[in-house]
């Protein structure tokens, strides 16, 4: 069903102060090591990741100019939040980054503590457990616990761009998360991409544009990952190959 993502972000209040270290936002140094490999592969229709054409699976192409930040989560000290709150966690796990949400109607998120203006953000995301009625994706222009943009999909095929401003969720481009065939549903891996360029915000899933909006509330800030639940707890999302580039 179509859903308005209007539930309260439970962790945007006092609870998140305990759950997330994201309050550090831009205080951490933005100096990062640019990897020698930063090309993400598109998932196939079966939800498996395949390398780009003419590229061996074990030899990705060199990163192009314009890479601002990359993390394959192989180093648990790379700077992301590592939290546990009543069984819900944001932490490194087996070379990926896990967000596990055991509450209902709640979103958990994590940030590396950086500061960017216009960016292209992408990651591979796989549902490892929990209901298909979930949401997960990426963040840009993170200001604080109550103010940022997030770009989400669900494992049952919905997508949208949302602005959290003063603790209130506002759908951008559409008031509801809209269905799209671009999403590989269920336990599949999806490539999620967000563009934050000037006032233009775009969400791509597996290379296909699925949502677009204009907004001027935030012009820069941190990036991040987010995942959440609706009526059923247990959302478990594994993220990999988080990449931030110049648009």
Query: Which shape, going by the Cα principal axes?
Result: globular
Number of domains: 1
Mean pLDDT: 82
Described by strand count, sense and barrel closure, the largest sheet is: 9 strands, antiparallel
Counted by DSSP, the helix tally is: 1
Question: Structural class of the secondary elements?
Answer: mainly beta
Number of strands: 16
Order of helices and strands: HEEEEEEEEEEEEEEEE
Describe the structure.
The protein is 2% helix and 44% strand. The chain has 247 residues and is mostly beta strands. It has one domain (10-28, 40-52, 61-245): Sandwich (Jelly Rolls). β7 (134-144) and β8 form a beta hairpin. Residues 1-39 and 51-62 have low confidence and may be disordered.
Secondary-structure map:
Elements lengths: L13 H6 L47 E5 L11 E3 L2 E6 L2 E6 L5 E4 L8 E11 L4 E11 L2 E7 L4 E8 L2 E5 L5 E2 L9 E9 L2 E6 L2 E7 L7 E8 L5 E11 L2
Brief account:
The chain is mostly beta strands.
Quickly list its features.
247 residues; mainly beta; 1 helix; 2% helix; disordered N terminus
